[in-house]
Design brief:
- By secondary structure, the protein is α/β, with parallel strands linked by helices.
- The protein has a single domain, classed as 3-Layer(aba) Sandwich (Rossmann fold), CATH 3.40.50.
- It has helices at about 5-10, 20-25, 35-50, 60-80, 110-125, 140-150, 165-175, 215-225, 245-255, 265-270; strands at about 1-5, 30-35, 95-100, 100-105, 130-135, 155-160, 180-185, 200-205, 230-235, 275-280, 285, 295-300.
- Helix 6 links the parallel strand 5 and strand 6 (about 155-160).
- The protein starts with a strand and ends with a strand.
């Protein structure tokens, strides 16, 4: 079986550019269904993981993220190969999620390639008329690099709570001659001194997940800063079906890891109060071994 740009367009319900269509199709995203024994083994392992201790997300993990991005920084300093800024968790597990089920990729780097296919399609579609784009929780900046390739006129800004992230972006600018701005930023303590100018959009990708249910300060910050658009590709319980086995396991993993919790429910409350407008909320139907963790939410403060 093979995933093409048509599958991604059907899920997202919009057409993507010819260049991105060609790029996605060139990835040759082939996979097969699991055998009955493979699926049983996958579910059994999943249940075993859920019954054991798992590292929870939260403020205490800053040191781990600093070390992780520090590894990417060291490799990139040594090689100047832009591929070395790609997070090492891509490809960590062979089995991935597609259309609500675990599948076995047959294409090398399948999870990374399908991930950036959706990210690029979404950002290019929703951010095409925005002049300044801020990624919060940008890590090593690999999404920002692709945005620069898409439109060299966009003002790009990467925000992350690790120092290693800013050092990587400085090295990227030195190596590639880019001018990506960067700032140290903590979701748990939003920095209101950060200037977000007119015609700005913000996005997070598997980053806001790290704050569990402590997202209200960040939402208040965004409403105050009043960007044109906010895009999140994050683990969203409310968009999965708790009555389906694989979805149910994914939700249990979200909770076990203390990932983003009731974020969409909160935005919906703010929408009823007339404070925000939700433009899109949907599943993307792709994910990693344990989670379907990149559901899409697009919203904006009501003043826009």
């Amino acid at each position: 079986m093979k995933i093409t740009h048509k599958h991604i367009e059907e899920i997202l319900d919009f057409q993507i550019s010819d260049s991105l269509r060609s790029k996605i199709d060139s990835f040759d995203l082939q996979y097969r269904e699991l055998t009955a024994d493979e699926r049983d083994a996958y579910i059994l392992n999943f249940v075993n993981v859920l019954t054991n201790d798992i590292t929870k997300s939260g403020e205490h993990r800053l040191v781990e993220w600093e070390a992780g991005w520090g590894e990417n920084l060291s490799k990139f300093k040594e090689t100047k190969n832009i591929g070395d800024i790609i997070p090492m968790y891509h490809g960590k597990n062979k089995i991935v999620k597609w259309m609500g089920e675990p599948v076995m990729p047959l294409t090398e780097n399948f999870d990374y390639k399908i991930h950036i296919s959706f990210v690029d399609a979404i950002l290019q579609h929703y951010m095409k008329d925005i002049k300044n784009i801020f990624e919060f929780g940008c890590g090593p900046g690999y999404h920002l690099i692709r945005l620069r390739e898409f439109n060299k006129e966009i003002g790009l800004h990467g925000c992350d709570w690790t120092i290693a992230s800013q050092e990587i972006i400085h090295k990227i600018n030195e190596s590639l001659g880019t001018n990506i701005n960067c700032s140290n930023f903590d979701f748990f303590n939003p920095d209101y001194s950060l200037n977000i100018p007119e015609s700005s959009g913000i996005y997070t990708i598997a980053a806001l997940e790290q704050i569990g249910d402590n997202f209200k300060d960040m939402v208040d910050f965004l409403i105050e800063k009043n960007p044109e658009l906010c895009i999140h590709m994050e683990p969203i319980d409310e968009l999965l079906d708790n009555n389906k086995l694989i979805d149910n396991l994914s939700i249990k993993y979200f909770r076990k890891r203390n990932y983003l919790n009731k974020f969409l429910t909160y935005l919906e409350c703010l929408e009823r109060d007339g404070k925000v407008v939700i433009i899109k909320k949907q599943r993307i139907f792709t994910g990693s071994y344990f989670t379907e963790g990149h559901s899409l939410i697009v919203w904006k403060p009501k003043t826009k």
